[in-house]
Design a protein that fits this description.
Lipocalin, 9 strands, alpha+beta, disordered N terminus
């Protein structure tokens, strides 16, 4: 019985680490991101919360909103979004992403197309290159907290 428990504990350890890494990565994505389509349009803003993504262009045009799934067990990570409103509700956009410091690259396919394999704008996929925007309220709270310590 002890051997079985030990074997299960060893087998489950990588899953626990992957789940923790996924939770941390999801937290790292939370925020406001601004940028452009590589080799294309500019003025894109994504707001990512723990469970959803909303997008606008030039602060006016609604690009949609949806829930997302993040899989950090792959390289590159898989970031898939499914629309939750509008006429395209239920459509899923398969994607890959990378996060390096304050730069998020999200290469996403059009609904019905295969997941991108490279970070590039072409055919039925586009690459968003986004920079994290400062969260002045969050930064102020963290600064106030540090000053109190």
């Amino acid at each position: 019985m002890r051997l079985l428990i030990l074997t299960l504990a060893i087998a489950m350890a990588p899953l626990a680490v992957a789940a923790e890494r996924g939770a941390d990565a999801r937290k790292d994505l939370v925020g406001t991101w601004k940028g452009r389509v590589d080799e294309g349009a500019t003025g894109h803003t994504l707001v990512i919360t723990a469970t959803k993504i909303t997008g606008t262009k030039d602060g006016k045009q609604d690009l949609g909103a949806g829930k997302f799934k993040l899989d950090t067990s792959t390289t590159p990570w898989h970031l898939d979004a499914t629309r939750t409103k509008g006429s395209q509700r239920g459509q899923t956009y398969l994607g890959i992403c990378s996060l390096e410091e304050d730069t998020l690259k999200w290469c996403v396919s059009m609904p019905g197309a295969r997941r991108p394999t490279q970070f590039a704008t072409r055919d039925a996929q586009f690459l968003l290159i986004l920079k994290r925007q400062e969260d002045k309220e969050k930064d102020k709270k963290e600064k106030d907290k540090k000053e109190k310590e």
